[in-house]
Structure formats: C-alpha cells, structure tokens
Amino acid sequence: MLNPEVGVVHSYDVLKYTLDLDLVANFTSPYPHSFGAKENIQIHADSALNTIVLNAVNSSLLIDSVGLAATSFSHSSDMLTLQLDRTYNEGEIFEVRICYHHKNVADGAIYVSTGFFFTDCEPEGARKWFPCFDSPSDKAKTDIKAKVPVGVRLGSNGKLNDSVVDAGAITYHWVSRDPVATYLVVLTARTNYLLDVITWISPISGDTIPFRFYYNQGEDPGYIESIIGEMTTYYSENFGDHPFEKNGFATLNNQFAWGGMENQSLTSLCPGCWGESLVAHEFAHQWFGDMITCKTWGDIFLNEGFATWTEAYWTEHVSGYSAYMEEMKGNADYYLSANPGWAISEPDWTINTPSVNTLFNYAITYMKGSCVLHQLRYVLGDSLHFAGLYEYANDTNFKYKSADIPGFQNKMEEVSGQDLNWFFDEWIYKANHPSYKNVYSYKKVDNKWQVLFTARQQQANIYYWQMPLELKINFMDLTDTVIRVFNSFNGEIFSFEFDKQPANLVFDPDRDILLKQATTIVGLPEDALANDFELTVNPTLVTDQATVKYYVAETSKVSLDLVDLNGKVVRKLARSVQYPGYHQTELDCNDLAKGVYIVRLTTDNQRVNVRFIRQ
Q: Which helix (H) or strand (E) holds 371?
C-alpha cells in the first residue's frame, strides 16, 4: 500500500519497537530536552525489500549509528532511510537497530520542566522522539526501558515488567503485549509523583486489572478511583471486555495543552483534572481509539465522535435517559453555534494530515461526531444500535487493529440488515446540516379529520438530508399520537386521517434529529404545495445510479442535461413542457467515466446546476 505520510511504498509491517532511553539528565537543572537512546525495530517484510524508510524529524533527532540488519543510513527531510544487509523476501522477519540522540529542543512532543518529563504525540509527534512508521494504520507492540533518578516514578504503555535500582538511578521496564499506534506511545515521569493502585476484576473473564493513578501534590483522585470499577464494568458490558492488561491515568503540568490524551493504557490529564466527564471520555478511547484505532486521520470520527458520545452514554447510566438527551442537546447547540462549515470526514485527510485546529475542531470532530452517533441510534433503534456497536468493537478485523469509517458502516449494515449509505453520505461526508421549514394543516373531510404535513428544507447548499421523521399530533381531547415516517425528498407531503380533531402538530418532538434548524408552521391546505425552484442529485458520490429530483413552480419548458466539466452535454435527460410540482428521474451512471459531472436544469425563467462525482 502507499504510505501517505512519506509518499513511498510501505512494503513492511512493524511488529515491535524496543526502546532503551537514558533520561537521568532531564531531571537535573537546567532540565534539558536532550537524551540518548537505542532502538530496535522488528519488521515483517510484506514484499521484497532492501531498504526501509521511517519517519524521523531532523530538527529533533540525531542518528548516531545503525546496526543488525541495517548497514547504513541517510537522514534528510524528516525521513530516515536504512539500507539493509540484503534483500528480504515477503514473509521474512528481521530487526534493525538505531542509536540516536534527541536534541535539546522543545518540539511539541517531548516536554521537560523541573521534575517533570512527558510525551504528547497526537497526531504525528512520535516521529520527534523515536524513529518509527508514524501512521495510525501500523500498530506494533512496545518494549520500553527508561532510566531516571531514584525518586522519579515513570509510567508507560502496557505492564510494568520490572524496575531496577542501580547507583542512584532506577530503570523502569514497560512491555505492551498488545499493539499500539505510534501516537499513543507514552512516557510520563515525575519526581515524587503520588501513586495509587487499585484493581478491577472482570466479571466477563475473571482477569484482575490494575489501575494506576499518578497525581500531583494537592490533588485528590479519590472520587474517580471509587467509580472507575463501575465505569469499566459498564463499558465492558456494552463494548466488550476491558482490552488491556493494565490501565491508568496521570495528571501532568501546565505544559500539557489539552484536557486529556488517551495514551494506550495510561491516559494523560491536565493538572487537577479528575472530573467525571473528562475521565469517561478519555477512558472510552481505550475501546474506541486505542483498541480500535482510526486507520487514517480522515477516520478521526471513530475516535473522538465515539468517545464524546460515550461520555453522554455514561451520563445516561448514572442519571437516566433524560440527562443523556440534555447533554446531547448541549453538544448539538455547541455545533450549531460554532459550525465552521466542513464535513466530519474529508477525502483529502486520508492522504494529507490536516492542521491540529482542523482535525480537532471541537464543533465538528467532537460535538457533531457525537450527535451523528445519537442520530444513528435514533434511526436504528436501541436494540440494533447497541448490537452493532458491540459487534464492531469485537470484530477481529478491527479489534487491536485499525478501522475506517466505511468498515464501521459495513458492520452496522451487516448487523441491522439495512442500507445505511444515505445516512453516512449526508451526515459524515457532507458539510453543515438541514434547515427545515415545514408546513402542516388540518381540515374535516366528511366525518374524518385530515392532517397534511409537508417536509421542507431550505438550506443554502443544494443537499437534501433524508431522515425518518417523528410527528407528534396533539388532539383537542388532550390525547396525542406519535407517527414516524421516512422523508426522502424535499416537499414530500404526508397525509393522515383521524376520528378526532387535531389541535396542533409538533415536528421531531424529542429532538432526536439533533443536527438541524427547524420551524414548523400551521397553514392552509394549499400551502402544502408551496415551494421554490430547486434541483437535487442523490447521492452526490455515485457508483452506479443516482436519483435526480427537481421542482418547477409553474408550467414551463424544461431541459434536464448531464454535462461534463468542459460544458459538453453528455446525455439529454428531459426535453418537455412540465407542470408545476416535483419530478424525478433515475440517472444510470454505469457507462460514465470516473470524474465530476453536472446535472443542469433549465426552465423558461431559471437555470441551476448541481455537481456530483462518479466514483
């Protein structure tokens, strides 16, 4: 496969990183960022190769020598190229050694201050402190030894194998039995760190899991320690057994720019940040982000959207569904007020890592992402939704590996038996959200009452969001009924008949469609047909067939054409006089070459174009 980070064929799989670091000097004034290290990398050849290319930032790392299967190296443009001692064939396993120094530079990955040393690497900081294939798609086991002065406690990924004291220094040896994405590899150390260790026994496997709480003087993690067992049990019951042989949390200092960072089996927290919601979020990442890691940065929804939603799901466990919904509505309100106007996942992000401000935009990646998961719950219902999440988390194609959004979609489709392409297309890959301008009316017809409801959207872009809609009809006798319909096109009219007189209609009464703006007004029956000139193509990413829907407000000559980007008419779809109302035609794209096309609608008064992509 193509390695998007380095632009070369990635013809190998890293199996294990073994690191040996000397950090003693980092705890002595003037507290330098520099340290010496040795690294062995165990590699599986996926195809014949005689060189390997690693990420290694030149401004941070100085390579001293290489050995074992590596005979020479070149280091430039943040890439370390190792020449191997021979050609290794597909399936062979070999090991290279790299001796290097981290330079005395503050690089945003290594943080050093009085008595403190820690790493923070998401998305691409690991390459600043050890040479690696720095992509979330390639996870490897870790074996880390770190030498620090006596009196310093140091935590890392996996299980503490041993700690050996020698001449005023102590070497901690941490080994992860489970593969770790490079951005989740962590070192956290402090002089006189306070440490509590509690254990949790899995009701599923019977395993005893230690939880290590590293904290600063004056902090009190006691409440979190008292609930972490219940939280672990709840997550395990819903998402599968706790995935790692150890877990833990460590508060850092003011150099840490975030609230928390979900390093695998040792989460970093800001100083004093022992809040329940923050811990619920970061701990959820141990399943969604660490056990299953986003394959590319275009799949960050699978990390942050999931953890943010799970944070609210923990609220549901503690305080009930109403509290969960209040939290989700707050998430939606934040998104609606701060929406920067891009999609949750952009195709380019799978190749080119976006800026941190874009990738971790709070309104999109966290708030909108969490709301999309709630809306999936609304579409599927609780039974299928939670069955799908459990099956996704326990699928061996993803567990302890990486996943992309299409893989998650396929799993949810498999479990639910439903085609969800429409849902993911509009909520994950489209920007913004629908703005409903609904109209309803009611009148007596013979001895029955007829209710007409018109689902209308009037957003600035051309997209139309399909969704199941819930309509609550209140009656004059103070009773009510909730009706669920599927709205597939703009201006769709729904008619209902009742034996008693309606009082009013409430659209989406429980606000399950969180990502929307909406008004619903009562009007005259003829208002149901009021609309503007419009055109939609669904889906906008087409593989074989698309549906073209359009509305004309008055009788007009209509031309509907398929046009390429050069303006050439590829196909004439309609040539006729058409009456006011909605019209629809199917567009067969099987014989179209891949690329961007335009559907052009021309009437006596207006012309409108809609672009779509033939994949």
A: helix 369-380
